[in-house]
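Quarterly update from the structural biology core.
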Amino acid sequence: MTLDTFLFIVGTIGGCGYWVMGVLSTTKLESKENLTPGMEWFPGIWSLSSREYSADGKSLCRIGNVVMVITILCWIAWAMIKNK
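Predicted structure, tokenized:
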């Protein structure tokens, strides 16, 4: 397996995992009425607004932030390797 294939696989799995965590995070909201503006229109940033979640949701946000950063870095590295 080459490095670019590995980065592609890790980036794709990370993105899917982040999406699944985002779906699960909706069950951890303390109040759905007080969402940060934009959260209902762009749910891809769910992990950046941890103050709206319960304690379990806040830990899910921390994990989600790590997964998001790793996923973004893998995709950037993959794109840089592919475009040499």
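Residues 18 and 38 are 18 Å apart (CA to CA).
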